[in-house]
Amino acid sequence: MDPTVVLLLSLSCLLLLSLWRQSSERRKLPPGPTPLPVIGNFFQIDSKNINQSFTKFSKVYGPVFTLYLGMKPSVVLHGYEAVKEALIDHGEEFAGRGSLPVAERITKGLGIIFSNGSRWKEIRRFSLMTLRNLGMGKRSIEDRVQEEAQCLVEELRKTNGSPCDPTFILSCAPCNVICSVIFQNRFDYNDQDFLTFMEKVNENVRILSSPWLQVCNNFPWLFDYCPGSHHTVLKNADYIRSYIVEKIKEHQESLNVANPRDFIDYYLIKQKQENHNQQSEFTLEHLATTVGDLFTAGTETTSTTLRYALLLLLKHPHVTAKVQEEIDHVVGRHRSPCMQDRSHMPYTDAMIHEVQRFIDLIPTNLPHAVTHDTKFRNYIIPKGTTVITSLSSVLHDSKEFANPEVFDPGHFLDKNGNFKKSDYFMPFSTGKRICAGEGLARMELFLFLTTILQNFKLKSLLHTKDIDTTPVANGFASLPPHYKICFIPV
Q: Which CATH class is domain 28-489?
């Protein structure tokens, strides 16, 4: 038979199979736009503004709808009620980790972020217990953050008030806190190996947030057959893993079972205890992936939020002035800010919450999946189906936040100026898969920002009306535009 005929027949069969699968699946799933064969609804979604596309779909199909990102269906939950109902009220059913092909290439289903089932439960339980043993949520970790905040201030002083790009300085501070927990020691801000490591992590988050990576995640075969920045992501991931593996080897050589120093030591001790168990999850490969997860989650999210916070404070100097007035009144100039101060600083607390709400750091959350066939709002969602929870739709809900597109700390203040909590505040997600480092991140944001504002005036190179706070990417994460800032000592 003519090869052209064979190719046409094969393509026709593929299209028919795709149509048949979609039509049979769609009968049970929530409604949604009609997908095209093979490519699904991909061209109906703006990859540069996914959230806007989700909002448009929700107005047509309601808060629970189905999209085909490629050939597989994903259920999208839009708005506070749907997200809360799934992640909190039905937390166990929605506790799976959904498909994210680029992450699967890197982690191979290991680690704390992209693992599933009993493997995920075991490593998360171990990690949370170990982090608590190492001071997470205790005074000892606050001391480390305060020390790092002073190191950060000293580094910023070296700029002598000259314009600087704060990206790497602000990345080093939270990374050093994580380093002290995982490796026991911090690194100098000029350590070249440390800076290279940080650069690889930073570059990966930037690429993962680009429209091209959204394309690759929907059509995974592109990883193998197309050139592009996804190869850089994989190469950087190999570098990060090699760096971590070397640290693990050093720990193996100097391990004292009676005196664990850090996260790696605790893990190696646990591995020894599990030696008899053939099915043990505590392998060296799993350790390397888990440490990589802790670094990425504990460094880039906090440093990006800090970077965005300073940009917003440049854009809104009246907010900065109020925060600095509160710092002067509560903390003064002669001691370091501490977490006890937060309850006496409602405006500063509201400002930090508003930064997190406004920037909408992880707009569509990490993908979830249902752990078994699940009935949700009269729809049947088959086991393993990816579920996308729009955190953006919660953080920008006009019913809860009067002007959601406007940066205003007043969103978190009552009429008497007291701090006002909101159930809609979900920048760390919610439910079973809530960020394991939420407490540390909130501590770092408060202590780093208050210490910076206690010691410096912030000066922009641009007039406030010319400062652009629009994210340059918002696929995986919302990233602020590059800018320069002057830190003027007070």
A: mainly alpha
Distance, CA of 20 to chain centre: 37
- Taking the alpha carbons of 100, 106, 107, 108 in that order, is the dihedral positive or negative? positive
Token output for 380 = 């049947």
Selection from 181, 187, 194 nearest residue 261 by Cα? 181
C-alpha–C-alpha distance, residues 412 and 197, integer Å: 37
Residue 228: other Cβ atoms inside 10 A: 15
164 neighbors 304 (Cβ within 8 angstroms): no
Q: What percent of the chain has pLDDT over 90?
A: 71
Is residue 31 within 8 Å of 62, Cβ to Cβ? yes
Helices (H) and strands (E) in the chain, counts: 17, 11
- Whether 257 and 273 have beta carbons less than 8 Å apart is answered as no
Domain boundaries, the chain: 28-489
Strand 386-390 relative to strand 456-460, pairing = unpaired
pLDDT, residue 300, reads 87
Alpha-helical segments (H) within 284-437: 284-315, 317-330, 346-359, 391-395
Q: Which long-range contacts (CB under 8 A, 24 or more apart) does 123-129 make?
A: 123/281, 123/286, 123/290, 124/436, 126/267, 126/270, 126/282, 127/263, 127/290, 127/294, 127/436, 128/436
Residue of 459, 408, 443, 447 lying closest to 166 (CA atoms): 459
Annotated binding residues for heme:
435
CA atoms of 361 and 364, how far apart (whole Å): 9
**Sheet of strand 64-68: strand arrangement:** 64-68, 73-78, 386-390, 368-369, 96-97
Task: Give the tens place of pLDDT for each residue, 206-224.
Answer: 888 888 888 888 888 888 8
Any residues with CB less than 8 A from the CB of 181 and at least 6 apart, and which? Answer: 131, 134, 135, 136, 141, 144, 262, 263, 294
Q: What is the DSSP letter of 41?
A: T
| Rounded Cα gap, residues 480 and 473, in angstroms | 8
Q: What's the gap between Cα 469 and its chain centre?
A: 19
Binding-site residues, in ranges, read: 435
Residue 208 CB: number of other CB atoms within 10 A? 24
Between the two ends of the chain, the Cα-to-Cα distance in Å is: 82
Q: What are phi and psi of 84, to 5 degrees?
A: -65, -45
Please give the model's pTM, rounded to 2 decimal places.
0.91
Longest dimension (CA), the chain: 86
pLDDT tens for each residue of 285-340: 999 999 999 988 888 899 999 999 999 999 999 999 999 999 999 999 889 999 99
